[in-house]
Amino acid sequence: MHKVLLMMLLLTGVNVSAQEIKIVKMDDVVTMIRESKEPIIVNFWATWCAPCVHEIPWFEKHVYADSMPKAKLLLVSLDFQEDVPAKLKAFVKKNHYRSQVVWLSESNADSFCPKIDASWEGAIPASLFVNNATGYRKFYGRQLTEEQFKLELAALVQKK
């Protein structure tokens, strides 16, 4: 029983540490994707983007549906520089996001979008699903419905 309690406390600590928001460049994000040993979903969003904020709760709901996450969810904020870190950090805390949140410190979409997908013109929300072990890669330059996300997550974590 004590081990279970200790494990719960440790897991709670992991969630708290996820509140630290790291400042990144798109090359850092690309490296995180390339080096991911687990399936990864990279969601590009902003606190001021209603469709973005609308879809994140069901992304987290389905990624963390079991005791162990099915995939890694990386939330890449495209918030304005003046909103980082204070507003962004407060927003993440208020919404109890469990996933890793980073802030992209670049504003030239013509430069950073093609590094994720040639079809991405900069609209958000946008999501990239990658499983390096199976070669799976799918990009969406739009909001996903909860049902679309569930289907995509299932395809992402499917074993070859």
Automatic annotation (TrEMBL):
The keyword Cell wall biogenesis/degradation does not apply. Pfam families: AhpC-TSA. Residues 5-159 form the Thioredoxin domain. One of its GO terms (molecular function) is antioxidant activity. The keyword Signal applies. Gene3D superfamilies: Glutaredoxin. SUPFAM superfamilies: Thioredoxin-like (SSF52833). Keywords: Redox-active center, Signal. InterPro entries: AhpC/TSA, Thioredoxin-like_sf, Thioredoxin_CS, Thioredoxin_domain, Thioredoxin_ResA/DsbE_sf. Residues 1-18 form the signal peptide. This is TlpA family protein disulfide reductase. The lineage of its organism: Bacteria, Pseudomonadati, Bacteroidota, Chitinophagia, Chitinophagales.
